[in-house]
Structure formats: structure tokens, C-alpha cells
Amino acid sequence: MNQPPDLHDGPTMLERMEAGDLYIADDADLAAAAQRGIRLADEYSRTWAADPGAAKDILAELLGSCALDVEIRPPLYVDYGSHITIGAGTFINFNFTALDVAPITIGCDVMIGPHVQLLTPTHPVDPILRRAKWEAAQPITIGDNVWLGGGVIVLPGVTIGENTVVGAGAVVTRDLPANVVAVGNPARIVRELP
Which in 6, 75, 78, 88 has the greatest CB count within 10 A? Predict the structure, then answer.
């Protein structure tokens, strides 16, 4: 079993997190950034129906980068929001969860069904490290023109190639190439697209 990393060996928890190294999430700076993300996501969700223009402004403040024509139906749940990039023409349905401890990149013209989860955090298998509250993360990339059906879960480190369709309820545990249909748990390719 491993010993927890030294808390005083140099990099801040934010620097560790952004480098993909082990870090402790309840660090004061990270907690403040997470609180900001949760507050803005909640504000977006409460504002969306009554004032779409104001909601777009909140979304622009929340996310790292978001094209002007992106539509995200609330509620929206994030860890930080600032590590999420969304391309033009993308539509995201209700109850989207994007745990952006590592970067989440969503391409252009992506369709995301309701209850989809993009999960970048990982936790050590080693019980000593896990008990000491260490965690890490791996980025997620969704290519252009991808369709994620309702309830899809995408795990840390996954890249989904352009034009790929992932069927409702699938759990994507590893990369999917461009131009395929994948279904199931774990998601497996069932056919290629022309």
C-alpha cells in the first residue's frame, strides 16, 4: 500500500488537480472554486425559464468556453464549470451532470440526452490513499456531431470520436472511434456508420 503524498512538497492542490496528479478536493481554494461553480449552475437553472438572455450571461460566466448558440436545459450540475468547453450548435437536455475536475471538451453540433453524466474524477483503489481523501481526474473529449442518448455515463479519460452515436443508458468505459454506434454496459460497438 502507498503512503499519502506529502502535503508540503510544493504544488498547490489546484496545480496538482490541473496536472492530473493526486490532490485533496477539500482544499480551501478548490472548495471556493467549487462553491462558485455550484452557485452559478444553480443561478442558471433558476433563471433559464424566466429570462433566457440573463441565463446565457450566467452560462458564459460559469463555463470555460461556450458558443453563443449552445442550449443547455436545466438543471445543470458541475464541479467547477470553468474546465468545460462547448462548441457551436450543441444541445444538452435536462439534468446534465459534468464533473469537470479535469477538462471536459464537447465539440460542435453535439446532442446530449437527458440525465447524461460526464465524470472526470477518479479515486485511488488503494484504501489508505482513499481514506486520506486523495483523488485525481482524467479529461473527457466528445467529438463534433456526437449523439449521447439519455442516461449515458462517460467515465474518466474517454474520448468519443466525431459522428458517433451512444445508445441510451450506455456506460462508456473506454475510447470510441469516429462513425460508430455503441450501446450497453460497458459500451460496445454494434455497427459502423457510413
Answer: 78
Q: What's the whole-number average pLDDT of the chain?
A: 95
CATH code of domain 13-192: 2.160.10.10
Distance, CA of 171 to CA of 163 (rounded, Å): 18
Q: Exposed, middle or buried, 29 (CB in 10 Å: 0-12/13-18/19+)?
A: exposed
Are the CB atoms for 79 and 36 separated by under 8 Å?
Answer: no
Which of 15, 38, 34, 16 lies closest to 26, judged by CA?
Answer: 34
Half-sphere exposure of 96 (CA within 13 A, CB side): 24
pTM score of the predicted model: 0.94
Q: Is 123 a catalytic residue?
A: yes
Distances (CA, A) of 129 to 5, 9, 16, 23, 30: 9, 17, 15, 10, 19
Which candidate in 8, 83, 115, 123 is catalytic? 123
How many CB atoms sit inside 10 A of residue 176's CB?
A: 24
Cell of 35: 462553491
Nearest alpha carbon to residue 37 among 99, 115, 95, 90: 99
